[in-house]
Each structure stands twice: as C-alpha cells, then as structure tokens.
Design a protein that fits this description.
The complex is a heterodimer of chains A (320) and B (206). In chain A, 22% of the residues lie in helices and 21% in strands. Chain A is of the alpha+beta class and 320 residues long. In chain A, strands 1, 4, 5, 8, 9, 10, 12 and 13 form an 8-stranded mixed beta sheet that branches. A 5-stranded mixed beta sheet of chain A has the order 3-2-11-6-7. In chain A, a hairpin with a 6-residue loop joins strand 12 and strand 13. Chain B has 206 residues and is mostly helical. Chain B has one domain. Chain B has 8 helices and no strands. The longest helix of chain B has 30 residues. Chain B is globular, with a radius of gyration of 20 Å. The chains are: A alpha+beta (320), B mainly alpha (206). At the A-B interface, loops of A face helix 2 and helix 5 of B.
Chain lengths: 320, 206
C-alpha cells in the first residue's frame, strides 16, 4: 500500500522543520548538483581538448610540404568531434566521447612479414626516423562528406626504405589496435575487429602516402587515431587506418575490414572516383563540412597528377 | 472524457509541432552539430517514421483499450507524417540538389535508396490529398479504405530507404522495421479473426 493509514504514522515520520522550511533550497540544490554533474563532464572534455590544442606544440620546426593544398583547413573542433571510429561507437560524436580511455603509451608498431630484419618500434623510435612535415590534405569519406586536415608525419616510403624487402613483398597489410576492454562499444559496429587495411606496394611507396603522428600542430587526439595512423588522401577515408600496431609486407592482397563486410560495396582499391558509384548511393558529389550545398567530386580526390599513373590500364569499375 | 475534448486535440496538435519547432530553433541558433544538413535529414526522417508508427497504432489501441475516441487523432498523425516527410524531402532537394528537379530525377534513377524513398513519398501524396471527410464520401468508405492501405507499403519502403542509407549501423532501421512488422501482423491476425466462419457442421441441413 502506498498510502499508509493514519494510525500507522508516528512522530518519527514527521519531516524535520528545517528540511520542510528549506525544501525549495533543497530541491534547487539537487537540481543544481544534477546540472553540474551533467555539465562538468562536458566542461571537462572541452578543457581536456583545449589543453591538447594549447599545450606547447609537440612538433616544433615542421617542414612545409609541396603536397599541401591551398584550400582552407576544416576547424580542429570539427575534425576532432566528427569521427568514424567504430571501436568507440557508430555515432559521429561517439569517438570524441568514448576514445579518451584509449591507452596510447606505451605503444609498439611491429614491422614484419616479407622483410629481412623484422622489428618493433616504440613510438619515439618511429617518429624520429625522418623530419616531420605538415601535409594539408583533402580527406573524402565514402559517406560523401569531406574535410581538409593539416596532418603531421612523413612519407611511409621513408619507413619502408629502412628495411630490405624480399621479392615477395607485393602488398603492405596494416592492423589497428583492438582491446574489447577499452572498446566495449565495438560490438555494435557491425564490422569485425581488429580493423585491417592494405595497400599495393607501389601505392605504399607513393610519396603522398603519409605515416601520420599528429594534426593541427600537435599529437593526434585519441578519436582521430592516436598515436599513429595512415593517411592516403586519394582513397576513401576508411583506407586511412587508425591506431596502427602492425605493418606487414606480404605476397597476396591483404583482407580489408570494409571489403570483408560488403565486397560489392567496398573494394580493395577504394579510389575516390565520381564515375564509380557505391551500389546504394552516388559518388558524383560530396559535402565539405561547413558547406550547405554539395560540390562535384574530383577523381582521385584531386591527386590524379601524383597517383593516376599507378592505375593506368586498370578497369577502375572492376577494381573499385 | 478527456479524449473527446477539443482542448485535448489542440494540445496534441501543438505537441506534434514541437520537433519541428526545436529543429527551427536549433537551425537559427546554429545548434545542429558539425554536419547540419545531415542532422536535419536524419531528424526529419526519424520523425516521419515515428509519426507513421503513431498513426498505425491508433486502430490496434482503439480495439485493445476500447477507446473509440482515439480515431480523432489518426488523420492528424497521418498528416503530420506527410508534414515531416515534406520537410525531409526539402532537406534533400535543397542542400543535395540545389532545388534542381533534373538532378533529383537523375538521383531517383541512379541511387537505389533514393528510388525507394521517393516511391514512399509518391505513395503518400494521394493519401494526404484524400484525407478529408469530403473525399471519404466521394470515394465511398470501401474504396477510400483500399486506397489508404497504401500506407503499409509506404511504411515498408521508408524502412528500406533508411536501411539502405547506412553503412553497417543497422540497429535503428531494424528496430523501426520490427515495430512496423508487429503493427502489420496485428492487423493481419485481426482481419483473420473477423473473417466469416464456415457454417457449423451441426447446423440443420438447408
């Protein structure tokens, strides 16, 4: 019974006078505490990201690259809050919220497979291999949105040249870090983990292919693939694998996560191409974040001068 | 009874406008997130499907809860489906096609998920048009009911449109699909229960 009979109430049940007189303040206090709790999380995140931005630059003396576009970069806030990183949830705002728990130190990148002397690098070791450049690249998602990002890194070819490859090294396979403990949201992603990707060896050796350690003058935020990722600007964004732990040279074409999920929709090459539609939607146009209207997509995301020769004679519809 | 009051109908009418008003306010205060067009397209699409669910809930709830008065809200919910669908269509025709009908027709022909969405839109136009009592009288109850059964096909097409627009995050489209399936199955069982029974074998021979 919710309402007790009159005879069951005693003096112990009477609300203390002070609480009764101050009941409004009590309610306001509870409401304020609740609001503060809700807001503090947001404020904490904003402060955290501000610290990331305004910390003394982790990368002084960045070399400016001739491969940088003159187009205006997207805002750091957009690029760090609109992410596809399904290990941390599938909404665009999920990775910024959930990836902060990603443990990026210590970090090991293993280079293995068809190489004479495979080895593991710590992050410090792999960063120091070459002077770091700032590369302002266009970045085009298969979902038809695009951004411009000032990445920091050096050409993957520099890393590859540190190794003596066997004649069987015709492809490079990449693998992301995966830990179900840090990534409980991954099981709702619909795709298999750990995330894998791959390139043909000549694509990997192309100077545009970037081994990336930072953006906007500082280290990568966790939601953007900290602490080391690939950026391949002439391909759809899902080829630019994040949080790399393994780089493996091999003879056969490596499996790639999205191709395994839907082979007719996501091919191995995934070159940006307005003439090759996704089975369910067109790739002829894209929306630059910040714009209302769409604009035409350019083949190879506008990097045809540097990469079109890699595919001469290839049927780009068949090898999509 | 609360349900018969005209104030209730007004209150419900205004409540149904709230999602639109929130979107309008957020548009003006630039509070639509990092991809505002996407937010608008998803939000108007979601509300189209939700009002469709509400519309299809009226008949089962009338029967199960014995609340005949609920019928007053069915046309209102149905027209709100069409209202949010028109908004959804405009958030596509404007930002994606710069209001070019030629571009739109090319898309309808080329992009399967747009074909299906456009088909759902087309099916609901005659339903919105004939939603008045005048049309029920003109078509007669039976033919009007037959025409308005197109809403079931539109609902299925709407869910397929949503499903085909996402890469791998199928939870939401599948949830909508399951909900519509339950609502459609209830109607199937209900119509099977109401069909005329064969004469009992113990009836006297004619």
């Amino acid at each position: 019974m919710l309402i007790r009979k009159e005879s069951e109430l005693t003096y112990a049940d009477v609300t203390p006078r002070s609480v009764y007189i101050n009941r409004r303040q009590l309610l306001y206090g509870v409401a304020a505490a609740g609001a503060a709790a809700a807001l503090s999380n947001r404020i904490h995140r904003i402060v955290l990201l501000q610290n990331t931005v305004f910390a003394a630059s982790s990368f002084p003396n960045l070399v400016k690259s001739p491969f940088s576009t003159t187009e205006k970069p997207s805002s750091f806030s957009d690029v760090s809050h609109y992410n596809n990183f399904y290990e941390f949830g599938t909404d665009k705002s999920d990775p910024a919220r959930n990836a902060q728990k990603l443990k990026t130190s210590p970090w090991l990148v293993s280079v293995e497979g068809e190489v004479k002397k495979p080895r593991k690098f710590s992050l410090d070791e792999i960063i120091k291999l070459a002077p770091l450049e700032e590369r302002i690249y266009r970045h085009r998602c298969v979902e038809r949105w695009s951004i411009v990002v000032p990445w920091i890194g050096y050409s993957l070819s520099t890393l590859i040249k540190q190794f003596e490859l066997t004649p069987k090294a015709r492809y490079v396979a990449f693998q992301s870090y995966f830990d179900p403990g840090q990534m409980p949201e991954a099981k709702y992603g619909g795709i298999d983990f750990p995330y894998v990707e791959g390139l043909r060896i000549d694509e990997a050796m192309n100077p545009l292919t970037l081994l990336c350690f930072g953006m906007y003058g500082d280290v990568l935020p966790p939601q953007d693939g900290a602490p080391v990722r690939m950026v391949i600007p002439w391909k759809y964004g899902y080829k630019s694998i994040k949080s790399i732990v393994k780089i493996r040279f091999q003879e056969t074409e490596p499996p790639t996560t999205w191709n395994r999920y839907a082979p007719n929709e996501y091919g191995f090459y995934s070159n940006v191409n307005p003439n090759v539609d996704h089975p369910r939607w067109s790739q002829a146009r894209e929306r630059r974040l910040g714009d209302i209207l769409t604009k035409p997509t350019v083949i190879f995301n506008g990097y045809g001068d540097q990469v079109a020769s890699l595919y001469s004679g290839m049927d780009l519809k068949k090898f999509h | 009874m609360i349900l018969s009051s005209k104030w209730t109908k007004l209150a419900v009418f205004l409540l149904c406008l709230v999602p639109f008003l929130l979107l309008a306010v957020n548009s003006l205060t630039e509070n639509l997130g990092i991809n505002p067009v996407e937010t608008l397209q998803h939000s108007t699409g979601d509300w189209t499907l939700r009002f469709l669910i509400l519309t299809l809930c009226i008949t089962p709830f009338r029967k199960l809860l014995r609340l005949a008065e609920l019928i007053r809200f069915r046309r209102m919910f149905g027209l709100y489906v069409f209202f949010y669908l028109c908004l959804h269509f405009l958030t596509y025709l404007g930002p994606d096609q710069s209001f070019s009908l030629t571009g739109m027709w090319l898309d309808v022909a080329k992009r399967p998920f747009i074909t299906v969405g456009f088909a759902a839109f087309v099916l609901l136009i005659p339903l919105a048009f004939t939603s008045t009592a005048w049309w029920i009288r003109r078509l007669g109850r039976k033919r009007w009911a037959q025409l308005h059964r197109l809403v079931y096909i539109a609902a299925i097409l709407g869910v397929v449109h949503y499903d085909w627009s996402v890469k791998s995050e199928k939870t939401k489209p599948l949830t909508y699909g399951a909900t519509f399936l339950i609502l459609l199955l209830w109607r199937l069982f209900d119509s099977l229960k109401r069909r005329p029974r064969p004469a009992s074998v113990f009836a006297p021979q004619a």
